[in-house]
Design goal:
The protein is of the alpha+beta class. It has five helices and nine strands, in the order βαββββαββαααββ. It is globular. The two termini are 20 Å apart.
């Protein structure tokens, strides 16, 4: 199955003042605005590591780092078919992918929520493998690369490629102590 979103589709964007400096003014806070989706998308495209959160059959959460590629309005990641996150997604497709930094006063964090669907369309699979190779370069394309062979593993089914079309996304900006919280609904 392929979850593709038309590239032209834009989410609704809103600043949540409850969690932004707009509610607790400090120098620079008067200019706090919602982050445009184009900027969030640029950051998703550039981010190297994501944390995926899935739900275990008993309701507990499972969180683990993954590499991911943004392609045609969808965030893609892969895992082995027997790994915990794949087993969790077989039970409950809801998940979140998170990326960002760990500084209190600088950076931008992103959370993408949606349902993970396995990709079965061979053409989409090849497009996403190419997106992975373009993004991660030698990490995937070099025989010495950490993730070398991941494309072939996806082609053989030794790694399952999941597509997460955003339903809701959040952006948390920190600029020298000025905070913004943006919500995008798709």
């Amino acid at each position: 199955m392929s979850v593709q979103r038309p590239a032209a589709e834009q989410p609704t964007t809103e600043l949540d003042a409850r969690y932004s400096s707009a509610l607790h003014p400090r120098p620079g806070a008067a200019d706090v605005t919602a982050t445009e989706w184009a900027e969030a998308r640029r950051r998703l495209e550039a981010a190297e590591i994501f944390w995926v959160t899935t739900v275990r059959p008993g309701g507990g959460l499972h969180v683990t780092p993954v590499i991911a590629a943004w392609h045609d309005g969808v965030l893609y990641f892969s895992t082995g078919p027997g790994e915990q996150k794949a087993r969790n997604l077989a039970h409950d497709a809801h998940c979140a992918l998170i990326t960002g930094g760990n500084s209190l006063t600088e950076g931008f964090d992103l959370v993408v929520e949606g349902e993970a669907e396995p990709v079965g369309d061979r053409a989409v699979l090849e497009e996403v493998i190419a997106a992975y190779e373009a993004k991660y370069g030698a990490h995937i394309t070099s025989a010495d690369g950490t993730f070398h062979g991941i494309g072939d593993a996806m082609r053989r089914g030794d790694a399952v490629l999941f597509a997460v079309a955003p339903v809701t996304a959040y952006g948390f900006g920190r600029d020298d102590g000025v905070y913004s919280h943006t919500r995008w609904a798709f």
